[in-house]
Amino acid sequence: MISLEGLVSRQSKIAMVGLGYVGLPLAVSFDKVADVIGYDISNRKIEELKRGFDATGEIASSDLISSEIEFTTDPDRLKETEFIIVTVPTPIHKSKRPDLAPVKSASRTIGQNLAKNSIVVFESTFYPGVTEEICIPILEAESGLICGVDFKVGYSPERINPGDQTYTVENIVKVVSGQDEETLETVARVYEAVITAGVFRASSIRVAEAAKVIENTQRDLNIALMNELSILFNKMGISTSDVLEAAGTKWNFLKFKPGLVGGHCIGVDPYYLTHKAEAVGYNPQVILAGRRINDGMGKYVAEMTVKKLIEVRKTVNGSRVLVLGLTFKENVSDIRNSKVVDILQNLKEFGVTALVHDPMANVNDVREEYGLELSSLAEIGKVDGVVWAVDHDAFKHITPWHLKELCGNGNGHGVVVDVKSILNRAEVESQGLVYWSL
Ligand SMILES: NC(=O)c1ccc[n+]([C@@H]2O[C@H](COP(=O)([O-])OP(=O)(O)OC[C@H]3O[C@@H](n4cnc5c(N)ncnc54)[C@H](O)[C@@H]3O)[C@@H](O)[C@H]2O)c1
Question: Which residues' Cβ are closer than 6 Å to ligand 1?
């Protein structure tokens, strides 16, 4: 069986299958201690990586160029490796059901190229049971090998937070698991070679799978509670941020804020858990209630923007609103499942001309994924309102005075909607603008 010693002495190789936000940083870390083959099905991605360009923005070009990772789209190369880490996407269908197609396809490819005595570790976010009930049977069928005898399997969920410079792959404790004691120990030792924060040995693969999916479910629910409170306090005319500031002085009050929950993790992973819950005959109520609230926040923000425009006597139909930020969160280029798109869509339904500016997002990706055109600040002209949706550092130069300058369309006050509650209300209002925040 593969060992850490074999890897660090470069007698055997590690393969990373799927080189996105999760796989690439991990490949770069392992490259420091072992020979790494980086496999991805996307030709474009592999060509970019070979040229030293990481479209996710996580890895600097110099680090890519100086790495010795062998980037390839050739699945045959997996035969050279004995420790395979799978970091392919786990999206959901429109129906909110898990879409396991990439995981199944990766398992098929690995199975067809699986060397005897290998360990395959899945990192993609799963509901409890995916590794054992779905991946192992595919690996066995495609390889003709027997799991537990000819090869072993582990699961180690990823916890990185793209765009975060403080918590990186190496300094977040990594949960590891294996199908037996020996596999667990090998998986743990391999990860310990690069994860300086250390590893946590979970008692089983299912426990590790469940641990990951509840981390994001818990966060989703906590934000959903804040969003519900925000809707409630708005009806009562109370400032949610003032309430949270006051409540936050208690030592055990959790510091969550209301906001949009987009992206491919927090807004998606709970559906993996609820799918499994239903499969075992349990109808999850709290988790799905939270999902419904969070999924509705884009529409809510758009409706509140329109109400504010009406309050300042703007004619909604034909008014112009600038939305700042499109990516699913601050300081990343990732636009997948962005809830800002819901704001834009709903504003348009009211007849508002909604413009969006985001220096972090890729123009072509935005066009391809949403059919939207990004606007540049210089060309936007005057608008009736600004929705500050994403807190990019790149927006830090925009002051309340700039907002007033932007909001000079027609008569009446301009409206500023501060989705992230980052602006100072008094400063915005002192510019003669009407301020609203979640
Ligand atoms: N991005 C995050 O913040 C984050 C954090 C923790 C966990 N996760 C989980 O990690 C997993 C990967 O997420 P990501 O954000 O890195 O995804 P991603 O979309 O950025 O990257 C996935 C890569 O896998 C490739 N791919 C797809 N199918 C493949 C196949 N069959 N064979 C080989 N390559 C294939 C894609 O081309 C892509 O380059 C998901 O399960 C996600 O939920 C993501």
Answer: 17-23, 39-42, 45, 87-90, 102, 105-106, 109, 124-125, 158-160, 162, 264-265
Question: What pLDDT sits at residue 39?
Answer: 98
Q: Where residue 255 sits, what CATH number does that domain have?
A: 1.10.1040.10
pLDDT at 9: 81
How many angstroms is it from 123 CA to the middle of ligand 1?
9
Helix (H) or strand (E) holding 38: strand 35-39
Tell me the CA–centroid distance for residue 323 and ligand 1, in Å. 28
Domain range enclosing 75: 4-203
Distance CA(275)–CA(57), nearest Å, equals 32
Pair 184, 238 in one domain = no
Coil/strand/helix, residue 40: coil
Ligand 1 pocket test target in 87, 174, 216 with most atoms within 8 Å of CB: 87
Of 158, 178, 203, the position where a domain reaches its end is 203
- Quote the tokens at residue 347: 């504003």
Whether 424 maps to a domain, the answer reads: yes
**CA dist., res. 152 & res. 145, Å (int):** 10
Is 147 a known active-site residue?
no
CATH number for the domain that contains residue 371: 3.40.50.720
* d(C-alpha 165, C-alpha 142), whole Å: 40
Question: What is the tally of structural domains in the chain?
Answer: 3
Asked if residue 422 and residue 283 are part of one domain, the reply reads no
For the beta sheet containing 70-72, the strands, ordered from the edge strand earlier in sequence to the opposite edge, are 70-72, 35-39, 13-17, 81-86, 119-122, 152-155, 174-178, 199-201
What SS3 class is residue 341? Answer: helix
Let me know whether 242 and 140 are in one domain.
Answer: no
Query: Do residue 287 and residue 300 come from a single domain?
Result: no
Compute the distance from residue 23 Cα to the ligand 1 centre, in Å: 7
Mean pLDDT by 10 residues, the chain (438 residues): 81 95 95 96 97 91 95 98 97 95 98 97 98 98 98 96 82 96 97 95 98 97 98 96 96 96 93 97 97 97 97 94 96 93 98 97 95 93 96 95 91 92 95 96
Please tell me the residue having the least CA distance from ligand 1 atom 24: 18
Residue among 158, 167, 333, 338 whose CB has most ligand 1 atoms within 8 A, to mutate: 158
The atom number, within ligand 1, closest to the CA of 125 reads 41
